[in-house]
Design brief:
Elements (H helix, E strand, L loop, with lengths): L3 E4 L6 E3 L1 E2 L7 E4 L3 E6 L4 H6 L6 H8 L3 E2 L6 E9 L6 E11 L3 E6 L14 E8 L4 E3 L5 E3 L3 E6 L9 E2 L7 E3 L10 E5 L7 E7 L16 E10 L8 E3 L3 E8 L2 H20 L3 H11 L1 E6 L5 E8 L11
Parallel strand pairs: 1-5, 2-6, 4-7
Antiparallel strand pairs: 2-7, 3-14, 5-18, 7-17, 8-16, 8-18, 9-10, 10-11, 11-12, 13-15, 13-17, 16-19, 19-20, 20-22, 21-22
């Protein structure tokens, strides 16, 4: 039976700036249950200067960061423990819904950051009005930006020997992947490194282009509903995803060339195993139908994702 749980972002349920297997879970659920999480976003300068009403939960986290730091990074709601999920398994995350949860958003430009770290020498904070009814963000310079919301951070806990890690670079456990394809209706498959998995979500994006070029997207509060399922019939070294139309492999590394190698090698292996074709034929097929895209270039570990239409997998679904 699928039981539904709901968690609101608060100083007690948010961990700020870091991921760790030592963060205690805020809830323990059964495999196959659904959990709804609200998430918040905004560093001190955003909260102090925002010409909007700032949610009390955001003030509370700033004033009393029970599980966090004021040194940057993302505010993540969680972690959620999944009973019976053990290290070495895979966590299937069905993204059931992603909802805008604010009438404003922000984007920051800072020196030494982004795709052009040497070109901008002063900080600039851009605030956007969010029109939830029409699903657009309105910029100060008069443009309307269509919204396609997703969570930048979806993750399991890192291995215990890794210790406490900044949320900024994505890794094998997912994290700050910033993959704009992971909208409602998509499924993410995450490697599990500690028993219980310890799933967290955060970094709500109203929309984002491939690359996340200036370092931030349309950053805002978000609500999401996720069905979390333990998979003991899969093994993954890196996150992968499935959308309505595509199978997606992902990789993260400081070097984009290394990301390409990892993402392509994963897809070759998937096609070889599940389509019963040779690795050479799979490699050849990717030159015909593979779409290799830059996920983001601004988080220390950069990202590449490779998309292949599901028709070339015989419309196979990896979902349970």
């Amino acid at each position: 039976m699928n039981i539904k749980h709901s968690i609101e972002a608060s100083a007690e349920t948010v961990h700020w700036g870091y991921l760790s297997s030592d963060i205690p879970p805020i809830i323990s659920i059964n495999s196959g249950d659904t959990v709804s999480l609200s998430t918040i976003s905004g560093p001190p300068d955003v909260v102090a200067n925002a010409p909007y009403n700032v949610r009390q939960a955001l003030h509370d986290v700033h004033e009393n960061p029970v599980r966090g730091t004021l040194q940057g990074g993302h505010m993540c709601t969680g972690p959620v423990e999944i009973k019976g999920l053990v290290a070495g398994n895979v966590l299937q995350v069905d993204i059931l819904s992603v909802e805008l949860d604010s009438d404003w958003a922000y984007t920051g430009v800072s020196p030494l950051k982004g795709a052009l770290p040497d070109d901008f020498h002063e900080k600039q904070m851009t605030y956007l009005d969010i029109d939830q009814e029409n699903m657009v963000a309105k910029t100060p310079w008069g443009m309307s930006i269509p919204l396609s919301p997703f969570f930048g951070v979806l993750c399991t806990a890192p291995p215990k020997p890794w210790g406490a890690l900044s949320t900024v670079p994505p890794r094998r456990n997912g994290g700050n992947m910033d993959n704009k394809e992971l909208v409602a209706g998509s499924t993410v498959f995450l490697p599990v490194f500690v028993d219980g998995g310890l799933f967290s979500a955060g970094d709500g994006h109203g929309t984002q282009g491939d690359g996340e070029i200036c370092t931030a997207a349309v950053e805002m509060n978000m609500k999401g509903s996720f069905k979390l399922t333990s998979r003991d019939d899969m093994m993954l070294e890196w996150p992968m995803a499935e959308t309505e139309d595509n199978i997606i492999t992902m990789a993260f590394d400081p070097d984009l060339d290394n990301c390409v190698v990892i993402a392509v090698r994963q897809m070759v292996n998937l096609l070889h195993i599940y389509c019963n074709i040779s690795k050479a034929d799979a490699y050849t097929l990717l030159s015909y139908v593979g779409n290799l895209r830059v996920t983001q270039v601004v988080n220390g570990n950069k990202g590449i994702h490779l998309m292949v239409n599901k028709e070339f997998f015989g419309n196979k679904s990896f979902k349970k």
